[in-house]
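PROTEIN DESIGN WORKSHEET
SECTION A - STRUCTURE
LENGTH: 479
TOKENS:
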């Protein structure tokens, strides 16, 4: 049961025609000249909440009484006011590039808390200067700045929830004043394909509401739009998602080809000596290949010489040796037919050796696995089995967690390369009920020709045409 009415009010020679919308529980009023918007509860007529202060000065307009729409002719802008249940919907559409600021309002410091969907959710008392500095010291948007496009304003006289239906091309600015903190929301209709896309707000007013009421409104809106997918529904298409339930999460780094866990505890000194002796012999050898592929400015020889002189190299020196060996294993020039004739290699590695001999490319993970086999074959007494190599991304990490009594775990790696290099670790993790995958941003699109961020590389057309762009056409860049 709702209605939209035009009311004439005001005094003097100028009159302002207000748009009034009545829901079952509240009355909303919109001034088409300034877009000042207020509401009051029908059961509490003495209290009025300001949804937005007057921010417009666009007097050349016409109002459609039936649709509740305001057309600003000179600006090619249409604002439509409607009721949605007990909430107010304000929708802005422009036929040309423009920007609109709405809502804008002041929040008194002594009695207002801002509910802000950042991280796990912030309940921000505006009387606290640490929080107000946090709000005013940066610019905000409704994509990266906020994790979900809504917020709540909790005051003694009620709570307002603002939901933004179009999260793009928005900015939110906070201004700290003596007794209040002002919020101003600006949407830009850019000079690109998004110019005709409206920005719509749904505003709900509640009293005696819990701090999570804005989140509940947002959830209900997603349900209405069919955008809320339950975990059970996701599990139908991806059964492994069940492993998320009750699972602890951890980040595991150090996916380098060789780590300090891959050299036997008593193998550091003899390994360093063996590498140096082979390199000095003047004949093709694994030690000669290590120094051949490392950069001249890597201080590799000095590092191995120092380790060769210590019965127990200190931690930094061990890490330096492991880093140098990892560099060597990433090189396509580490393999030499003179050192490792393809006919002497296991069948699983012969095709890789033949490809390298012919000058063909081998992808990074396969190359590291191949070179790891060669290094271990050259120094089997000092290195552990390559199947167990790795520090974080390793089978012994899985064993340690399993032995601790954990039957599920979410392990996040620093990149997909760590898993591609050791696919057996991913299989081993799955056998133990663990989930493992790369850490990544899901809102990134990278150049398909770039070797970085392979999990965010798509095709050329998507990279060139589908970026979120600023009003001047330049793409919005991520971290």
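SECTION B - SEQUENCE
RESIDUE ASSIGNMENT:
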């Amino acid at each position: 049961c709702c209605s939209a009415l035009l009311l004439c009010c005001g005094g003097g020679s100028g009159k302002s025609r207000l748009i009034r919308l009545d829901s079952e529980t509240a009355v909303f009023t919109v001034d088409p000249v300034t877009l000042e918007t207020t509401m009051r509860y029908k059961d509490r007529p003495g209290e009025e909440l300001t949804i937005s202060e007057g921010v417009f000065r666009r007097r050349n307009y016409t109002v459609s009484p039936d649709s509740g729409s305001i057309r600003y002719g000179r600006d090619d802008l249409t604002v439509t006011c409607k009721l949605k249940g007990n909430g107010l919907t304000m929708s802005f559409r422009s036929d040309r590039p423009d920007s609109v600021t709405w809502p804008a309002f002041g929040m008194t410091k002594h009695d207002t808390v801002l509910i802000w969907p950042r991280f796990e959710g912030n309940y921000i008392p505006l009387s606290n200067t640490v929080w107000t500095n946090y709000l005013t010291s940066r610019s905000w948007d409704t994509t990266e700045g906020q994790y979900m496009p809504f917020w709540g304003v909790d005051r003694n006289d009620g709570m307002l929830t603002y939901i933004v239906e179009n999260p793009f091309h928005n900015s939110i600015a906070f201004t700290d004043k003596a007794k209040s903190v002002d919020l101003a929301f600006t949407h830009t209709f850019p000079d690109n394909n998004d110019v005709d896309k409206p920005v719509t707000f749904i505003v709900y007013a509640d009293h005696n509401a819990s701090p999570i009421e804005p989140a509940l409104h947002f959830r209900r809106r997603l349900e209405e739009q069919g955008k809320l997918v339950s975990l059970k529904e996701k599990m139908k298409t991806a059964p492994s998602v069940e492993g998320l339930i009750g699972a602890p999460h951890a980040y595991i780094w150090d996916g380098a080809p060789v780590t300090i866990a891959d050299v036997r505890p008593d193998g550091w000194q003899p390994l360093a000596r063996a590498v140096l002796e082979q390199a000095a012999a003047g004949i093709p050898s694994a030690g000669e290949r290590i120094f051949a592929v490392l950069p001249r400015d890597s201080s590799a020889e000095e590092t191995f010489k120092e380790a060769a002189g210590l019965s127990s190299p200190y931690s930094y020196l061990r890490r330096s040796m492991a880093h140098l060996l990892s560099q060597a294993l990433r090189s396509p020039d580490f393999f030499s037919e003179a050192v490792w004739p393809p006919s002497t290699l296991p069948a699983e590695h012969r095709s890789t050796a033949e490809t390298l001999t012919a000058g063909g490319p081998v992808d990074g993970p396969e190359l590291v696995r191949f070179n790891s086999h060669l290094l271990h074959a050259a120094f089997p007494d000092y290195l552990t089995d390559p199947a167990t190599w790795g520090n974080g991304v390793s089978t012994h990490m899985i064993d340690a967690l399993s032995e601790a009594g954990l039957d599920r775990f979410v392990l996040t790696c620093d990149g997909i390369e760590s898993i591609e290099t050791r696919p057996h670790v991913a299989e081993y993790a799955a056998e133990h009920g663990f989930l493992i995958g790369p850490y990544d941003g899901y809102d990134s699109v990278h150049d398909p020709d770039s070797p970085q961020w392979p999990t965010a590389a798509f095709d050329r057309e998507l990279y060139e045409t589908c970026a979120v762009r600023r009003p001047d056409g330049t793409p919005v860049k991520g971290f």
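SECTION C - NOTES
Residues 6-15 have pLDDT under 50 and may be disordered.
The radius of gyration is 32 Å.
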